[in-house]
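Issue 218. Parser rejects a valid record. Input:
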Amino acid sequence: MATRIEKDQAINELIEEIKANNVIYLADCSSMNAEATSKLRRACHTSGVRMKVVKNTLLEKAMERIEGKDYSGLFPTLKGQTAVMFASKGNAPAKLISDFRKKNTVPSLKSAWIEEAVFIGDDQLAMLTKLKGKEELIGDIIALLQSPIKTVIGGLQGSGGQKIAGLVKALEERAA
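Output the parser choked on:
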């Protein structure tokens, strides 16, 4: 049995790790054998995902001690063995689990906390793999903003562009 000091130290380490990440996945790896667990850890390492098996009570205490963020939506899923996956991209652990399950039946997703949003259940996995990251969303917004400008420029440069340019010139002359 761990001492009170060891438990406090484990909680403090979890607090630091949770604070450093806006993406937290909780997975059930309990039915995995040692070989499959080792493969999953290697897959996590190559994908930039950190995985840690933790005691549910320690994880809950760590989450409760973090001010300004509400992790309580995850608490009902803290049953059985829990592997915590920390990542910088919201869809990275989901893609990793999904790819890993092409050859294995586990792990299953218990829940996820992504930028304050809570996702519960393994049925969320497919949707989470399609989740776009901040950089991807910014790129999409820029593309959408550029689209009308490209249409106008294309119209000015195309065959109808001479007509539009002539209309603009006629309007300028009329205004003057």
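Fixed in the parser; the record now loads. Helices lie at 4-19, 34-47, 56-64, 92-100, 125-129, 134-157, 161-175.
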